[in-house]
Structure formats: C-alpha cells, structure tokens
Known about the structure:
There is one protein chain. The protein has 225 residues and is mainly beta. It has a domain at 74-224: Porin (Beta Barrel). Helix content is 7%, strand content 52%. The protein is built from 1 helix and 11 strands; from the N terminus they run H-E-E-E-E-E-E-E-E-E-E-E. It is rod-shaped. The chain starts with a helix and ends with a strand.
Amino acid sequence: MRLSPLALGLLGLFSITAYAGGTVAPAPEEAPAAATAPAPLPPQPAPAPVAAPAAVPEVQASAPQPLETSFEPHLYAGASIGETDYSGSTFLGATLVEPGHTSGAKYLFNKVFFGYRFIPNLALEFDEIDLGKSANITGIGSSLDVLGILPVGSCFDLFGKLGVADMEAHGATSNGGYHTGLNFGIGTDYHINKTWSARAEIEHFRKVGNDLKANLFSLGLQYGF
C-alpha cells in the first residue's frame, strides 16, 4: 500500500515523538532569588542611668504655741491709793467724833506693799497702811496677809486675803496706841506685761485703834522682780 507524502510525514513525526518518551519536558523554572537579609544595626550606647528624685522632706504643720504659762516664785512690790470709810466713834480730846469718808491718803499713798509669791496660788504679803484722815483721826498701821490666788487666763488673777493688822487711830485720845485685829479682802490683778500689773482691791480692818473699823477701796500698780 502506497502512503501519501502527508501520511508519511505524520508517521515520521509520530515515530520521533514516541522515541523521545512521548512527551516534551517543559523547561525548568528558575528558582526565585533568596531574599537579602537586612544589614544589622550598629550597636546603640546603653542609656544613661536616671537618678532617682531626691526625697522631699515631709513638712509638718507646726502646732500653735500656747501662751506662756511657766511660773517662777518671785518677789513683788507696789503702791495703792483710794478711799476709806470709817465706822464707829472715838474721842478726840473731850469730844466724841465719828470719822466718816476719806478720799486719798494723808501720806501720799494709802498702802505700800511687799510680797513673795511662792506658787501660782499662794503669796505672803506685808503692807504699810494709811487709811486717810477724817475728823482729825487718821488710821495708820501695818498688816501681814496670806493671799489665795486664782489665775484666770493669762492676764488676770483673782485673790482673797486674810491676815492680821496692827492699827492706830492716830489723833484719838480715848484709846491711843496700836491694836491688833483681823483684816481681810478680795481683789484682782491685771498683768500689763511680765513685770507690771494693775491691782484693784477692797479690804476690811476690824480694829483701827480700839473703837473704829474701816473699809479701804484702792487701785494700784505692782512690780514683779
């Protein structure tokens, strides 16, 4: 059987293909290029150490300071002037007189006093007294008193006093000379500063001479040593 040239050509091509394995291997694909690793960063210097903030001292609010209340035993002295009311009657010569109210003292002050304060509540005081003149009768003398003191705050003291007084009704003729009797009183001190004080007091004297009694109202200044 004679084959046409076209059939012969196809037959030859089929033979070549069968000989080569029947398939044409595809060309191998190129492997992708490996990724380039980034260059390492240069070493960085270590950060400088941060100093801890200095501790702030705690501020404590100072408590208000109380007024000074310390006490020290001390001497004091002072003088007072005021008014006296006598009661009773006595003889001036052959005349019976009844001295009454006096204002001021015959000898400058009604009272000069000296004392020692042992503790805040106790003092001992010596007084030289001039009750003033009425109907030509003057009560003069001295007294020794114990004072009980009650401090009121930092500026005031209240006090009561009790003692004995040796008093004369000077000018009287029926009972001349000094006579001893009780005296007592109340008063207050106002502290102007650490040294000076103002004093106001009322005192009663049971015996001025033999026949008279007297009340003395006085104001004065006192100095503490």
